[in-house]
Each structure stands twice: as C-alpha cells, then as structure tokens.
Fold this sequence. Notes:
Layout lengths: L5 E5 L4 H12 L6 E6 L7 E4 L2 E4 L1 E2 L2 H7 L2 E4 L3 H11 L5 E4 L28 E3 L3 H16 L2 E10 L6 H16 L30 H14 L5 E8 L6 E9 L5 H10 L3 E3 L11 H4 L5 E8 L6 E8 L3 H17 L4
Helix pairs in contact: 1-9, 4-6, 4-7, 4-9
Amino acid sequence: MPKKPRVAVVGATGLVGREILKLLHDRDFPAAQVVPFASARSAGEDILFGNRTLKVEELTREGLVNQCDIALCSAGRNVSYDIRKWVEGTDVVVVDNSSAFRMAPDVPLVVPEVNPEDARYHKGYIANPNCSTIQLVVALHPLQRHFGLKRVVVSTYQSVSGAGNRGVEELSQQSIALFNGSTLKNEIFPKRIAFNVIPHIGPFDEAGYTEEEMKVTHETRKILALPKLGISCTAVRVPVFASHSEAVTVDLDKPADVPGVRAVLAEQPGILLMDNPAEGVYPTPADAVGRPEIFVGRIRSDLSGTNAFHFWVVADNLWKGAALNAVQIAELLVDKDWL
C-alpha cells in the first residue's frame, strides 16, 4: 500500500462527511487523492476541500474500489452492508462510522487513544464507535488502567446533530415556530425537541432500554476488553445543536481519591480538564464545538458510595465522536503501515 493512499469519503455531503473532508485537509492527511461519494441525488455537486472544490461522485462499487485505498464511510448501515460486500477480496480498507458491524467479532472497534493495537488486526474493515461511546471510553481508559473498573453508570445528553442535518433543521424550525406561535411539526424526533428533553434515542427493547443505550453498553465493553463490565446507560436528546455531554459515575476496584482520579485523567491523551467549579470552570457543549479534545470536569466523590466518583464529559459529536476519530484511525493505519 502506498504511503500516500487514495482516500474516498462516502456520505460526503452529510454532516459527518463534510467534517471528514475538513479534517483531512486541515490535518494535512497524506492522501494522493480524495474522492467524495454520495447518493445519486447528490452526484455532480461541488463540495469544498480546503480552498478548492471537488466533484461529488455517485457511489458505485466500481467507482469506490477503483479509486481508493482507504474508504471513510458515513452513509448509514444499509449502505455499509453493501460496501463490505464490495470490498471483499480487494485491498481497500474501510473505516465505517455506521453501527452495521461494530459488534462483529472479526471487525475491530477502535478509538486510537484507547485500543490502537486492535486496528492492526483488521481484515479490511474497521468500525468507528458510537459518538457517545467514544468520549466515554477515552475518559474510562486511564481509570481502568490505574484503578480497575467495577461499575459504570452514564447518562448522555445528546445534541440534535447526532440525528444528522434533518435533526438540526427540526430544532431550528420548531424553535422559530414556537416564537411565532406557529404549528410545530416533529418528524425526526418522537416528541417536540425545541425547549424540551427526550429520554428516547432509538427503539426500545423488551427490558425498556433504547438501542442507543445498548450501543454504549456493548461497545464500551468491547473497546475496553471488559466483556463482563457492569455498565448501564440512559440516553437523552437535548435541544443543543452540537456536542454531546455525559454524567458518569464509576465504582473503582482499587482505592482512589479525587486528586488521584484528576491526575490520571489529566495524563490521558485526548482529554482536556476543565475542573474548577468554584471559579466557574467546567465544560459545556459550547466549549467543545470544533475542538478535538474531550473535556472533563466536575470530578467529585460519590457521597453515597465507597471508592466511587462522578464526573462530567463533553465532546463535539461530529468531531471526536465521528469524523475526527475516523480520520485518526486512517492516520494510525498509515503511520504504522497497517494498511
């Protein structure tokens, strides 16, 4: 595989696809060429790549396989099912942002700050985790390494951009309608999202958990290689345009205190501490927009438990939660010659 691979961005006209293109350019990814792909509806459009434009191509097997060495895909799981069949027996390596193959035993689920070595053993396909999972495992990883994890409880507060362009539009339109006294329409979210909070992301299972909650549960266990980790999640959609927040509670195996927890989190690559509440220093979604870091603050002991701690985690779901993590995986493959 060449040191300067050809890169395809599948789903290039979507929110995540556009961010992938921006990051490939801004991080000076060593690409011989970048080819944006999308559905037939978007084919022929011009899309920005730095200070120039690229022509969007219709996604086909021939176009993809013949024009790329690495495919960064963010076009939904149904498209991903097709793409995996297309690239079988070829030298194309896919980094897939959909949920289609995250839990497949033969597909690595990778966060470069946490389990980079897993990418080495790909068979032409690597999964990018759920946006909420990524920021969670980056924060859990140093605690696991230093103290061991006994139990994790997380509540997510997820922005509407997690539902794509249409989610952003629905919040905008509903907010305008409320101010104008107009009729509200909700098509993307199950209830009104403007000035509201919805504890419902994805379908419910028989136990009462949503698909999003179970993604966080299963993916965290896989990435941390802790298949029996006690973990439970409540996923909530909030009327914020970008960045996801999480309230996390951890029970640790080894004795720890707040300074010790703070110290190991501060040393973790990818984390930026904002933890001085008395001075008004703690992360909010607005702080994380367009930033690569995962912000952590509000670190404190759990008053109801022994050796348990609470903290608050915020990250841009379109960057580290999706596009940036995918680009970092591609950078890892090139840097380590794992293509």
